Amino acid sequence: MDNNSKLKTLPVTLLTGFLGSGKTTLLNYILKQNHGKRIAVIENEFGELNIDSEFVIGADEDIFEMSNGCICCTIRNDLIETLNRLLERHQKFDYILIESTGLASSGPIAQAFLIEDEISKSLFLDGIITLVDAKHISNNLNEQEVVWEQIAFSNVLLLNKSDLVTQPEIKQLENQLHQINPTAKIFITTNAIIDLDQILNIGGFDLKSALESFTFNTHQHEADDAVSSVSLSFPGHVDPDRLNLWLQMLLIQEGMNVFRAKGILNVEGSSEQYLFQSVYMMFEGQFDKPWGSNSPLNKMVFIGQHLNSQRLEESLKNFAVT
């Protein structure tokens, strides 16, 4: 991962969610509102968007310019080519918003932004926003593994179609989403209406902002056959280089089961907190503010599949804790 995302020019937001969760409704809302933002929207299936002719002021091949300043286009061949086509237009965008297909996991796309030189030179991943169908999410979780992954990789979850369920059901769904991903912010929406400042320019992959308001919960949520989270908190010193190696060995042994990890570490020889996060085996870390009056304590959260808290903690302490 690149620590210098602030030097890059354009934030990219990835929009995900299972079929019927409301992604198209959100995109139509963005393309028709006078929000004053210049957003480039990249669609996988442009035909699903309900673009009224009065909102289209110019078209160039499959790139449409909207009256509110937005640009909308399709992924013609691959994502990198589409991004390059947009950047070659020499127009000043505030954001690029990419809609993923309803059947795709966010992980590979997020990882591409972190390792692809063609993308990373001028763009940085600002956040992953996932829409969740409040009415059908329980069935989706039972039937589709990709829904668990979409939730696990998210920075922000929009619990949409909230008008179709009761308040107790909303509360139960919020708790369930927090068990899968305790690090994501959750917003309750109807018709996918949301203040765009809640989903754009959120710094979801900037280390300091990603951990600034993060609350660690030492309670461990586990399900052997599902995506879950494990939170660890323990004293001692952690070697960040050995932690990176440990994560890579974990991926070799258990496949791609650890989707995301983040935390605050106590590193020997330093009085400052060490912040880290990872997407699959891509590891990023940096020193932050001093511990001050707080007792140094390592706090970590792992989100993935087939997680076992005892096995994770024992192997981590044996290898990376000095």
Mind sketching the topology for me?
Elements: E1 10-17, H1 23-32, E2 39-43, E3 56-60, E4 63-66, E5 71-74, H2 79-87, E6 95-99, H3 107-115, H4 117-120, E7 123-133, H5 137-143, H6 145-152, E8 156-160, H7 167-180, E9 185-188, H8 207-212, E10 227-234, H9 240-254, E11 258-266, E12 272-279, E13 282-290, E14 298-305, H10 309-320
Parallel strand pairs: 1-6, 1-7, 2-5, 2-6, 7-8, 8-9
Antiparallel strand pairs: 3-4, 4-5, 10-14, 11-12, 11-14, 12-13
Task: Provide a quick synopsis of the model.
The protein has helices spanning 23-32, 79-87, 107-115, 117-120, 137-143, 145-152, 167-180, 207-212, 240-254, 309-320; strands at residues 10-17, 39-43, 56-60, 63-66, 71-74, 95-99, 123-133, 156-160, 185-188, 227-234, 258-266, 272-279, 282-290, 298-305.
How many independent structural domains?
Answer: 2
- CATH topology (fold) name of the largest domain: Rossmann fold
- What amount of the residues lies in strands? 25-35%
Q: Return the structural class.
A: alpha/beta
Q: For the record, what is the CATH homologous superfamily label of the largest domain? A: P-loop containing nucleotide triphosphate hydrolases
Under the CATH scheme, which class of the largest domain? Alpha Beta
The sequence of SSEs as H and E is: EHEEEEHEHHEHHEHEHEHEEEEH
CATH architecture of the largest domain: 3-Layer(aba) Sandwich
Q: Give the biggest beta sheet.
A: 9 strands, mixed
How far do the termini sit from each other? 25 Å
Helical fraction: 25-40%
Rounded average pLDDT: 82
Shape: globular
Radius of gyration: 20 Å
The unreliable regions are: 1-7, 218-224
Strands of the biggest beta sheet: in what spatial order? 3-4-5-2-6-1-7-8-9
- Give the beta-strand count: 14
User: Helical stretch count?
Assistant: 10
